[in-house]
Design a protein that fits this description.
Length: 335
């Protein structure tokens, strides 16, 4: 009996096709790898690769991507966190999403926060019970499938945008809408929430000294970074959130918020870290950048500003994000 049958019974039809879920197990302890492999095999996972080092796992990923990677945190030469950094770079280059599940005995808050900041998705005890392991892997496979479907859809939409050559509304290189497009989306959210309640959250992400990148590394590198930023932002916002380019090196995000009070710095920490913590790989080399994020919530019932006025305020306030804090909350829109 597989995990889903055990959990839900025969009346629930399992949508997961185990044959299509690609898994890599990474651990320098061969016994641990074998225990996990047998547990996965018992639930009919067929595409399971075993790597006894992070280097071997990376070679496997270069040859063929995986949906789920189960890796030991503490490994010689390359740790689980360092492996995560490499995988996230590969994901970015290949428009792919890999769900990373770390095997660890650590459970303190500092360690978990460090792991999440590197892009780890979940944790499980180093010696997990079979049912818990299979449940976590099952959820990981579903999430990876959903994320990769969304990435493929986004790529398809970008291709369509290029073909339509809607240069007045979309950037031809990134496929992102411009400020006019973002304002229309924000307007739609405000109309929707005025009738149904809730509000909108807005964010502006600005790259420091973006023009100097072209001066130092060339315009091609600047364009590669623009595309790289758009990819990272897409991977770190919700599927129904809208992202666009406000200006060179400046991006905007608008999202529906059932509860506007949920718009605070912690909510946008992952977006901030996605841009700042890893360098961008270009043909001119790996280039580090610094970005600041300006955020605010707009409660439709109290809002008296148009979408254009809201975006004007957000762009005007972004310098404060560099001066007072890398994630700056705008309070002017709450007046």
């Amino acid at each position: 009996m597989d995990w889903c049958t055990w959990k839900y019974g025969s009346v629930w039809k399992d949508p997961m096709n185990y044959q299509n879920v690609s898994i890599i197990v990474v651990d320098d302890a061969r016994l641990s790898c074998e225990v996990i492999r047998r547990a996965l095999a018992s639930t009919n996972y067929q595409d399971v690769r075993i790597a006894n080092s992070a280097e071997t796992a990376l070679k496997m990923l270069h040859e063929r991507p995986a949906d789920v990677v189960l890796a030991d945190w503490m490994m010689p030469e390359i740790t689980g966190l360092e492996l995560t950094d490499h995988i996230r770079q590969l994901d970015e280059e290949n428009d792919h999403y890999t769900y990373i599940l770390l095997l660890t005995a650590k459970d303190d808050i500092d360690s978990l926060e460090e792991a999440f900041s590197h892009g780890v998705d979940d944790f499980i005890n180093k010696s997990p019970e079979s049912k818990e392991l299979l449940a976590r892997v099952y959820a990981a496979g579903r999430i990876a499938h959903l994320q990769n479907t969304l990435l493929q859809t986004a790529s398809h939409l970008t291709t369509i945008n290029h073909k339509l050559e809607q240069q007045n509304s979309f950037d031809i290189h990134t496929g992102l809408g411009n400020r006019c497009y973002l304002e229309k989306q924000l307007e739609n959210i405000l109309k929707h929430t005025l009738a149904r309640g809730g509000g909108a959250s807005c964010a502006v992400v600005k790259i420091a000294d973006f023009g100097k990148i072209a001066d130092e590394y060339g315009e091609a590198a600047q364009e590669e970074i623009t595309i790289g930023i758009s990819k990272r932002l897409r991977q770190n916002i919700r599927p129904l959130d809208t992202m666009g380019m406000l200006d060179s090196g400046e991006f905007g995000i608008v999202m529906h918020q059932p509860d506007p009070s949920n718009c605070h710095a912690v909510s946008f920490k992952r977006i901030f870290q996605a841009i700042n913590l890893r360098t961008f790989k270009t043909k001119a080399g790996n280039i580090p950048i610094s970005a600041a994020v300006c955020i605010s919530s707009v409660e439709s019932a109290k809002n008296k500003r148009s979408a254009t006025e809201i975006m004007d305020v957000m762009q005007k306030e972004i310098p404060n994000a560099f001066e007072y804090g890398n994630i700056y909350e705008v309070t002017e829109l709450e007046d």
